[in-house]
Amino acid sequence: MLAGKRILLIIGGGIAAYKSLDLIRRLRERGAAVTPVLTRAGSEFVTSLSVSALTGEKVYSDLFDLTDEAEMGHIQLSRVADLVVVAPATADLMAKMAHGHANDLASTLLMATDTPVLIAPAMNVRMWDHPATQRNLAQLLADGIRVQGPNSGDMACGEYGPGRMSEPLEIVAAVETALGQGPLTGKRILVTSGPTHEPIDPVRYIANRSSGAQGTAIARALAALGADVIFVTGPADAAPPAGVRVVRIETAQQMLQAVEEALPADAAIFAAAVADWRVASASLSKIKKDAGRLPVLEFAENPDILATISQRKTDRPTLVVGFAAETDDVITHATAKRVRKGCDWILANDVSPATGIMGGTENAVHLITADGVEEWPRMSKQSVADKLAARIAAVLC
Ligand code: CTP
Questions:
Q1: Are the CB atoms for 317 and 267 separated by under 8 Å?
Q2: If you measure from the C-alpha of residue 303 to the centroid of ligand 1, how many angstroms do you get, rounded to a whole number?
Q3: pLDDT tens-digit readout, 183-200
Q4: 193 and 168, same structural domain?
Q5: DSSP string of 324-349?
Q6: Which residues are catalytic?
Q7: 198 and 170, same structural domain?
Q8: Could you tell me if 261 and 377 lie in one domain?
Q9: H runs (alpha helix) in the chain
Q10: What angle, 0 to 180 degrees and rounded to 10, lies between the N-to-C axes of helices 105-112 and 91-99?
Q11: Does pLDDT of 156 surpass 80?
Q12: Which residue puts its alpha carbon closest to atom 17 of ligand 1?
């Protein structure tokens, strides 16, 4: 519930603005009051009259409106809310926010506010994928801005991909989380992610392939539902999401130690691609090429972190979830892996090169539980993460 909460809703100029009308209704039926700000571009898509009728409040749109300034100055307006929500957040609004522009009412409020800000981006897929937007997104995340979506799917412009604004109820869930009201608020969840690097010598290592994208998406999704996330990550390409506690490690042994130190936890998700073996005695100095002689590496087995935590007698998390990266007989291997390791759920995926899953943005998984196997359609890694987080919330709450 959002009773007694005030949301400052900035409606940007995109076709998704029509969904913001429904968002207003959803927020109000949960008890929130909504103060609307309609940008000039936003007013090309929805009318001030509709917004005012649905919010039951005056619509603000002009920075230099003398009446507005006399009644409530823009600085005061930026401070009235418990949360500022930008929906839809266009590429232009994101760019303004990332660069600190303040040349209209919306951007000025976003600069002046001292309350948390949540944005729901919506734009054409190419605009979303554009390096400039991705740079701006990274900056906004680093600035502590909360980001909900975008979703993948058919777009109003006829293209397909990420860029669709999240649905109103997804934004409401993000609002509740931002206001400390998510379903996982108060739950502590551990997530491992990325590869581990096992040194051969100071300059060489062995590792599994892993971008860390799926683990990062899971941590982001859990945090978005309000969980206190401890994110134990190896050296991954993906930057850790905002709003989680990051513990960086390099080797499997360090990962196990970090995981044990993070217990107790309500749930633990093991998405890391842990190297099964390490070099038994890594050289402390660089191994030099020695004409005609090849180095011989002896391996030692790394601890199985998932199995170790699943089989703990004390402090075992209520829910332990592992992954199974397989290239053949996916379900058979993964089902056996769940029993052998003693975890509750396994997300099994086919990582054969032909699937494009390794290093890609999509995933196709099977959820294997004691009750059987559930096939999830191929979707973005973030959508897999959101679906998993919702399932975890259903079990823990
Ligand atoms: N895992 C782990 N510690 C290890 C190896 C794997 O915690 N030393 C976890 C992974 O994070 C994943 C699950 O175990 O959640 C399965 O990983 P996977 O590589 O598919 O399986 P392995 O145990 O390595 O088995 P195999 O290589 O024989 O398929």
A1: yes
A2: 10
A3: 898 899 999 999 999 999
A4: no
A5: EEESSSHHHHHHHHHHHHT-SEEEEE
A6: 157
A7: no
A8: yes
A9: 17-29, 48-55, 66-71, 74-79, 91-99, 105-112, 125-129, 131-142, 168-178, 213-224, 252-262, 305-310, 330-341, 381-396
A10: 40
A11: no
A12: 324
